[in-house]
Design a protein that fits this description.
This protein has 244 residues and is of the alpha+beta class. 19% of the residues lie in helices and 40% in strands. It has helices at residues 17-28, 75-85, 136-149, 198-207, and strands at residues 3-13, 31-32, 42-46, 54-59, 65-72, 88-93, 96-100, 106-111, 125-134, 154-157, 163-167, 175-180, 188-195, 211-215, 219-223, 229-233.
């Protein structure tokens, strides 16, 4: 079993979906696909000349967040493997499935449709990472789970003790970062962008309607127009790694 492609899914409250679609298509230099789903809640952010790796969903309940879609050649095989690693089934649909990690983070198994060409860097930044924020009591088990689920990926300690990186093989567009929270609260996830210049990217995102929330060690926390938080990180947009 191998992952053929990855998608970052932006989950936001349905009532603010139009604003978030407008913002994230501008940030990623994409156009919005036709809506899908029973309520038109799903759409893909489509780049020109390459394959999409970001989608957006309007959720009826809660504040939203982010999740990963893994595109695979054989969805039932992936689901069986994921459950064997410790995942649980959250919802089964025709041709695709929603699963839950041991800590409770949702992710999806979807069919691969031949995606292979990663979108380019946009204005010196790239949306390339989903960060799963894990309570301390579940962190070690969650790190072990993602390493087992993605055996062809590199599972590595991060730049700080509270981070762990699960890095895909070359060509796959979305990485996984696991962050150990400082308090016990439910698992959640957010998006990270790799930025050559965090300050310049922050200014541009504010122009597009985002708000600055806080500065970290080598990241800046932002809030998009629908209220969802995400981070601008000081990583190389081409490689995803921190500068030497």
């Amino acid at each position: 079993m191998s992952i053929r492609w990855t998608y970052a899914f932006i989950d936001r409250p349905a009532q603010g979906l139009g604003r978030v679609q407008e913002f994230w298509t501008a940030v990623t230099d994409t156009r919005l696909s036709e809506p899908r789903g029973e309520r038109g809640e799903f759409a893909t952010l489509v780049p020109d000349g390459t394959d999409a790796c970001v989608k957006v969903q309007g959720v009826a309940d809660g504040t939203g967040g982010a999740h990963l879609d893994f595109a695979v050649a054989d969805v039932p095989e992936f689901v069986t493997s994921a459950v064997g690693c410790g995942a649980s089934m959250a919802a089964e649909h025709e041709g695709w499935a929603v699963l839950r990690s041991p800590a409770g983070q949702l992710f999806c198994a979807v069919p691969w449709h031949g995606e292979s060409v990663r979108p380019p860097v946009v204005q010196d930044s790239r949306l390339d990472q989903v960060c799963v924020d894990v309570p301390p009591s579940a962190y070690d088990a969650e790190v072990a789970f993602w390493g087992a689920l993605l055996p062809d990926w590199q599972s590595l300690p991060g730049s700080l003790p509270e981070f762990h990186v699960v890095k895909p093989p070359p060509g796959l567009p979305i990485r996984v970062l696991l962050q150990r929270l400082g308090e016990e609260r439910p698992v959640s996830a957010h998006l990270d962008l790799a930025c050559a210049d965090i300050g310049a990217t922050c200014t541009e995102h504010q122009r597009l309607g985002a708000e600055l929330v806080a500065h970290g060690r080598h990241w800046t926390v932002m809030r998009d127009p629908a209220g969802g938080t995400y981070c601008l990180t000081g990583r190389d947009p081409e490689t995803g790694g921190l500068p030497a």
